Amino acid sequence: MIAQSYDDIPYESNALKQTHPLHLYQLASYYGFNPTPIENARVLELGCASGGNIIPMAFHFPSTLFTGLDLSAKQIKQGNQWIYDLQLKNIALRCMSIEDFHDNEKFDYIICHGLYSWVDEPVRDKILQICHDNLSDKGVAYISYNTFPGWVIGNTLRDLILFATKDRRWLEDKINQIDSLFAIYQEGLTQTQTQTEYSWLLNEELKIVSEHSVNQLVHEHLSENHCPLYFYQFIEQAQRFHLNYIGDATFFDEGGDIAERQNNDFIQNRRFRSSLLCHAAHEKHNSTQHENIKQYYQQYLALSDNKFPIVSKKPHASLLARYQSQLQQHVTNYFHENILLTPVAQALMPFLDGQHDLPALCQIIKKLIIEGTLEIVDKNLQPISNESEIEENTIKICQETLYLLASRALLD
Ligand SMILES: C[S@@+](CC[C@H](N)C(=O)[O-])C[C@H]1O[C@@H](n2cnc3c(N)ncnc32)[C@H](O)[C@@H]1O
Predict the structure, then answer these.
(1) Counting atoms of ligand 1 from 1, which one is nearest the CA of 99?
(2) What is the pLDDT at residue 338?
(3) CA 161 to CA 174: how far, in whole Å?
């Protein structure tokens, strides 16, 4: 059933910066642990979908070995096509259920994002069992999950959607019904005679979910299982498998012990966590002050916000980004971030191979505009069709686009 839903509507599988082993290495080191440097590491991703997260990692770290598992044959097939086309030798994607994974291989990093709270108890236990059995002595596991109390109201809305669509047999019919359902509820909730704190909360949640893509609706609000949990409950579950909590991988980890963190979740109505675990026996050395971790985050974020980008004479983007741009509108940059391209950037990207200078790139874009494949607009958002204006604007647009790509860490 789960495999079928991901085969029918595949998950948008993208790079997730906070799961990157480089980041996990840095964080675990700051917390006083002694993780394996990424260059010699083995990495396992559970529920890797089509590999949009680990394939870019494998591309940039050829000496690191990556394995991905997913139940959905269609997604694994797509990922394997990417691996074949990019000729990557350090990654294998396997189509199988996590429950059937019984290997002895040890991994230095285990990543499990967007899965733990969407599967039933035996799979959740198996995820933790794999972390126990297959994490190397110095290994770090990353598990993300939806949390209470943030998901209390989210779950009410999910129940509402499941209830209202229960008699529709086909997924497509259920999806089509959701828009009108939202309109009815929004109207009811905003009528003054029904205004309460509850109606305000539910309406706010409705506003968030009405912005969701079909993909998100299917996998979050129409999915079979959804089991958010409190942070302290997750920690208890991990401890049953002799796994200890290190810290969280999100960029706003507030520090503190388990009780303080749980109290903060209550205060902030937190709805999501990405927690790092290690073996209970993994000895901690000198734990760094939380201030230092904050500093690391600031540096990390500043690095990916390049205010003084340099565009070389013949610009070069990674083979990975050039390949991705021919299949989709978003690509992975050098900081493992998912970057959405403008139509001009997407058209330019395949030619950023270090062989084309600005005049050559302008010629390519100009040709596409004249052919009608690409459209550029003036300051009043009117399409430009006059040839001399196209000539004049193309140089400006190409220069601006290259500058933007460099500033988003897509050029080297
Ligand atoms: C919500 S997606 C998350 C994908 C990816 N980790 C990400 O965050 O982009 C969940 C993925 O887990 C896979 N999955 C669900 N149950 C599974 C199981 N028992 N074994 C392996 N994969 C599973 C689904 O096929 C789907 O691709």
Answers:
(1) 19
(2) 95
(3) 9
Could you give the CA distance from residue 22 to residue 308 in angstroms, rounded to a whole number?
A: 24
The number of the ligand 1 atom at minimal distance from the alpha carbon of 219 is: 1
Angle (CA) 337-38-98 rounded to 5° is 80
Question: Which residue's alpha carbon is at the smallest distance from atom 14 of ligand 1?
Answer: 47
Do residue 71 and residue 28 come from a single domain? Answer: yes
* Banded model confidence at residue 30, pLDDT cuts 50, 70, 90: confident
Using alpha carbons, select from 404, 303, 304 the residue that is nearest to residue 346. 404
Whether residues 128 and 165 share a domain: the answer is no
Q: How many domains does the chain have?
A: 3
Cis check: omega of the bond before 149, within 30 degrees of 0: yes
Residues 39 and 158 in one domain: no
The domain containing residue 182 runs over which residues? 152-221
Give the mean pLDDT of 391-399.
91
Instruction: Indicate whether 67 and 109 sit together in one domain.
Output: yes
Q: Which of 242, 259, 294 is the last residue of a domain?
A: 294
Mean pLDDT in residue range 156-160: 91
Position 66 pLDDT exceeds 60:
yes
- pLDDT, tens digit, for every residue of 212-229? 888 888 888 888 889 999
Ligand 1 is surrounded, with C-beta below 6 A, by 2-3, 6, 11, 13, 47-49, 53, 69-72, 75, 97-99, 113-115, 118-119, 123, 219
Locus of tokens 């997260």: 53
Q: Domain check: are 62 and 182 in the same one?
A: no
Q: Do 264 and 388 lie in a common domain?
A: no
pLDDT value at position 305?
62
**Distance between Cα 242 and ligand 1 center (Å):** 24
